[in-house]
Design goal:
- 2 copies of one chain form a homodimer.
- In chain A, strands 3, 5, 6, 9, 10, 18 and 19 form a 7-stranded mixed sheet that branches. A 6-stranded parallel sheet of chain A has the order 13-12-11-14-15-17, sandwiched between helices. The first copy, chain A, has a 3-stranded antiparallel sheet with strand order 2-1-4, covered by helices on one side.
- In chain A, helix 5 packs across helix 11, helix 6 runs parallel beside helix 7 and helix 8 packs parallel to helix 9.
- The radius of gyration of chain A is 20 Å and the shape is globular.
- The first copy, chain A, contains 12 helices and 19 strands.
- Chain A starts with a strand and ends with a strand.
- Chains A and B meet through strand 15, strand 16, helix 10 and strand 17 of A and strand 15, strand 16, helix 10 and strand 17 of B.
- Strand 16 of chain A pairs antiparallel with strand 16 of chain B, so a sheet runs across the interface.
Chain lengths: 338, 338
């Protein structure tokens, strides 16, 4: 079997690897129907996060179960399943509280850009669709493995409520799907911060009512201007940089909510930022598993179409070109078909 | 009229000052029945916060209205009133959202360690008791001006719920009243972090079920041990130092809530602290005004007795001794009678 391996900055190879096998009774092997490149894959791709050795890549996946270990009863061979980028037992206290990405037994899934994948803790991790999905639903179902669930968590963690005003910082796939999530949760006004015309357009398709192109102090001033000097009820930080975090915090009204779902790089807050802002803060690695049943239903019933974030589809063996297209911002997100 | 003035580190004087007068139609003048020294007064007293010039002191107060400006209708001369350390109009969007300490027109109250006080924005700031209070309720009513409301906000901001486990970091007046608040809100288990026997005792009177004397990594380990490795549902940070903030954050379970109500000094959080902790964060200057009606009713009906935090009462002209007693931790909190 061939799979995707990152050797170092901008050096992605699709090369021969061992096919996965059941290693523990709690494992499942799935045949990947679709996988993709994540914005967070670009941190090591760009050399900002270092990789010490050749590293298999990929944590977003959906596909058909081929084999399960003896301890797995909830999914069966032949079923179409989706799972999160962290495997979780879904029974520990943190999972039961809905924080499966802090599962006491969590394991990262990191070899999904390949035709076959071993999923640990399969009983807790995988959720089956009602039936084999029609081909046109595949892209949307794939987003539930990470970016759609992460955008949804951004909106949930920022307490998005019907009729409220929401700011989304970041126009990558997660930011765009945070817009979709805020719309689905009933926000009246959704302000997308973006400078990219094609991303602005998609944000508007997903429900953005306003586009703000300014950043920093000017961006904050523009949000205040759009909200009668009050600030937004909710601000969703979907990038992970110090600039985007400050943008989100300072755009939020006192008593409002700011969330952060982008893996942080260089972010730091002072006590004064926390204290005098009077903002509720929540975020972290999105507990995608919590939302899978609800989001599968929304996609299955064609209530939401998050698959629109894929603006390029390539055969899996062209994975290196997929990374290049996202690195150069020629594509928002690239779907890969084995 | 004499009033309290801080000249520099450990130099508090009770000296002749101009008596306050109505300066704006929205002002009220009150005759102070009781005032006190706040833990936050110790920051400038100790020279940690610098005072550039002689500075009048005091922001906790209750007393009888003597005179009101022409725009004040909600309180009348002769009424007993309590107000917050920030005056607020109680009508702006931030006030209406319950964040009166972020009022668009807020003004600090800072001359309350005196026999008479001018309160700005009196209509929005002051709340009258049902009648003239009996003498024994004075200490408890005075706490509603700051420390009790701040402890209550700590519990509210950390989402304390019936049956849950709560950690309180800090055994000053605010920490002790945060224990009382958590108890009143129905917490099943309240873990007070304190090394001081008399404060431990008061914490237990207020409802603490466990005392933890360890700090830092050992303190966190002890909380984990007491919660089956899970962490607390809510952690209330009532100090404002980097150590107490990390103690609170790291004691909280993923998905749990940490609050901070101590004015921060040197606190900084990294993106990793925020992200991987998976904790809800909220805090800031307590919107004491929001809670005044509810807390006045609880004191008036003798459901709570927060006045127990005063373990020393002095005549107002001995204010310098009051500061010394708190600085040397000989007293938790000193009540001053004009």
């Amino acid at each position: 079997m061939k799979g995707t391996v990152l050797y170092g900055p901008r050096d992605v190879r699709f090369e021969e690897r061992d096919a996965p096998t059941i290693a523990k009774p709690t494992d499942a092997i799935i045949r990947i129907s679709a996988t993709c490149v994540c914005g967070s894959d670009l941190w090591p791709y760009r050399g900002i996060s270092r990789v010490a050795k050749p590293t298999p890549m990929g944590h977003e996946y959906c596909g058909v179960v081929e084999e399960v270990g003896s301890a797995v009863a909830s999914v069966k061979p032949g079923q179409f399943v989706i799972g999160s980028f962290f495997a979780s037992d879904n029974t520990c206290p943190h999972c039961r509280a809905g924080y499966q990405t802090s599962c006491q037994h969590k394991e990262g899934v990191s070899t999904a850009q390949a035709p076959r994948l071993r999923v640990p803790l399969a009983e807790g991790t995988l959720v089956a669709t009602p039936d084999m999905p029609p081909a046109d639903l595949l892209p949307s179902l794939l987003t539930l493995s990470d970016v759609m669930g992460t955008g949804w968590f951004a909106a949930d963690a920022a307490n998005v409520q019907p009729g409220k005003t929401v700011v989304v910082v970041g126009d990558g796939a997660v930011g765009l799907l945070a817009v979709l999530s805020a719309k689905q949760m009933g926000a009246a006004r959704i302000i997308a911060m973006s400078r990219n015309p094609s991303r602005q357009k998609l944000a508007q398709e997903f429900g953005a009512t306003d586009i703000v192109t300014e950043r920093g102090d000017e961006g904050v001033a523009r949000i205040k201007e759009l909200t009668n000097g009050v600030g937004a009820d909710s601000a969703l930080e979907c990038v992970g940089t110090p600039e985007s975090m400050m943008q989100a915090l300072r755009s939020t009204r006192p008593g409002g909510h700011a969330s952060y779902v982008g893996v942080p790089h260089g972010v730091a807050l002072t006590g004064d930022d926390l204290f005098w802002g009077h903002v509720h803060l929540h975020g972290g690695p999105a507990p995608v598993r919590r939302y899978l049943p609800e989001l599968i239903a929304l996609v299955w019933n064609r209530k939401i179409d998050p698959g629109k974030v894929f603006d390029l589809t390539l055969p899996l063996d062209q994975v290196a070109e997929a990374y290049r297209a996202m690195d150069e911002r020629r594509a928002v997100k690239v779907l890969l078909r084995p």
